[in-house]
Write a structure and sequence with these properties.
alpha/beta; FAD/NAD(P)-binding domain; Flavocytochrome C3, Chain A, domain 1; 2 domains; 19 strands
Length: 506
């Protein structure tokens, strides 16, 4: 059954209909078939399945075959405790967290059986034990293999078919989905419905309404399909909400210029080989100084050396802006020795500590709105629109800590305490980027959608980042890869439970 086929009939019949063709939706579709559903239809509004999963790099797993082969002693109980302590047992449903973590190792096995290959890698220095299963071929390869698995099982995938409404019968049971494609309206009648339509990172109105510390200068680097329509459809069908306003943020990153999403420079390494480098990681160098629009230092710049850890701290600053400051000594160091590259190893070139000759030349080419090179801090303060005495006091306080080898304010590791005294001085204006939203529809551990009275809506299930109750207000980087991990595991659970619901009903 080809996934390019679109429904010509106004009425289709299915055991299970799934809205959304990302990782959660594909996992739900194949799981529903594996657990006894004979006819499964998946609706994807874009031209092909993918969603956020197509942009993923890794997946969380505990007690997986990969870890066991590498002799890593990872335990579900330990990571359940880590997850709950991270959230202070507040704002999340421990039963959902438990269900997700308990299934995570088996999902790695399940994916390996489909041809997915993994390697265990750290997300931050000295991470142990390793739970980040880096995907060979990354998200695109994962989607290809999961899509093939669905098609081999007979799942019918209708692309460019946008769901508009969840149907309920006279008894309140989910009864299908009303959708549309280029040929007109499509009604899919089904015994159960699984919503897996992604988050709302590409819906500014929802971001402004729900996301704390939202600023108009935030950017979004997820798929454009994540507009929150699945969440709104479920609410219209009577679903309660949970954890709306959670997001995976990262920053600081260079403010975007016109028609530019990612800013690259081309240079050469010592062997004369071409090297492409994202300027973005320079904003996160641990031996630089970060200040807000008022010229005040606000964070330990080397905290965990993991870029997801900083996003919310930057978002809390005035207008969500942070400036990365460094001097010519640091510039020379980056050109000769490279950067620490907090984008995480094996994600983006260059590898950590690859020399970057020509970096200063390329920074000088950037727009005056995002990069400033100045010969004095007074000149820099004028560009930053900061009271010069305030900025100079911050610089002096920081330089004094560097001289003493002790940061009495934020306890920064002395290895990264490097004073800023050698002009010219550099500033990069940074902002916050939204990787994905997390939360929306209220569910239980069976991925059943709950109404305002915490009762399941019969036949309605949901999975992936469009549901709430599984993550607190900040990304838990100790469970590296758990956004994708939750998507796939919750999808598998939703498919299994929908099939069981159907079998009880028939």
């Amino acid at each position: 059954m080809t996934s390019q086929e679109n429904g010509k009939s106004a009425n289709l019949q299915s055991d299970v209909v799934i809205v959304g063709g990302g990782g959660a939706g594909l996992a739900a579709a194949s799981s529903a078939v594996e657990n006894g559903s004979r006819k499964v239809i998946l609706l994807e509004k874009m031209g092909s399945p993918g969603g956020s999963t197509a942009m993923a790099h890794d997946i969380f797993g505990v007690e997986s075959p990969v870890q066991k082969r590498a002799w890593f002693d990872t335990r579900r109980d330990d990571f359940f405790k880590i997850a709950m302590e991270w959230a202070h047992w507040s704002g999340i449903n421990p039963r959902i967290v438990r269900a997700f973590i308990d299934k995570s190792g088996d999902t790695i096995r399940w994916l390996e059986a489909q041809g997915v290959n993994f390697s265990l890698l750290p997300m931050y220095p000295n991470q142990a034990p390793l739970v980040r299963h880096s995907i060979e071929g990354r998200g695109p390869q994962l989607i290809r293999l999961m899509r093939k698995h669905c098609e081999d099982l007979g799942v019918k995938i209708l692309t460019r078919t946008r769901a508009r409404k969840i149907l309920r019968d006279e008894d309140g049971n989910a009864a299908g989905v009303l959708a549309e494609n280029k040929d007109g309206q499509v009604r899919v009648n089904a015994q159960s419905v699984i919503m897996a339509a992604g988050g709302y990172g590409n819906n500014k109105e929802m971001l402004k309404k729900y996301l704390p510390n939202y600023h108009d200068n935030m950017t979004y680097d997820g798929p454009r399909s994540n507009t929150g329509d699945g969440i709104l459809m479920a609410i219209e069908a009577g679903a309660a909400t949970a954890s709306l306003g959670m997001a995976n943020l990262h920053g600081p990153g260079m403010m975007p210029q016109k028609n530019t999403d990612f800013l690259h420079i081309d240079t050469d390494d010592s062997a004369g080989q071409p090297l492409q480098m994202m300027i973005l990681p320079v904003c996160r160098e641990p031996d630089t100084l970060w200040v807000n629009k008022r010229g005040i230092r606000f964070i330990n710049e080397c905290y965990i050396l993991q870029f997801f850890a900083y996003g919310h701290a930057v978002a809390q600053q005035p207008d969500g802006i942070a400036y990365t400051l460094f001097d010519h000594r640091k510039m020379q160091s980056m050109e000769k020795e490279g950067i620490y590259n907090q984008m995480a190893p094996h994600w983006f070139p260059p590898d950590t500590f690859t020399p970057l000759p020509g970096l200063e030349r390329e920074l000088r080419k950037q727009a005056a709105e995002v990069v400033k090179i100045a010969n004095s801090w007074d000149e820099m303060a004028q560009w930053m629109e900061i009271n010069p005495p305030v900025l100079k006091a911050t610089i002096e306080e920081y330089n004094s800590a560097c001289d003493k080898g002790y940061d009495s304010l934020f306890g920064k590791d002395r290895r990264y305490l490097q004073p800023l005294r050698r002009p010219p001085y550099y500033a990069i204006k940074g902002h916050v980027c939204i990787c994905d939203t997390m939360g929306g529809i209220k569910i239980n551990e069976n991925m059943e959608v709950l109404d305002s009275g915490d009762k399941p809506i019969p036949g309605l299930f949901a999975a992936g980042v469009m549901v709430g109750g599984w993550e607190s207000e900040n990304y838990n980087y100790h469970l590296t890869g758990h956004l994708l991990g939750f998507a796939l595991n919750s999808g598998r659970i939703a498919g299994e439970m929908a099939a069981k619901y159907n079998s009880r009903k028939s």
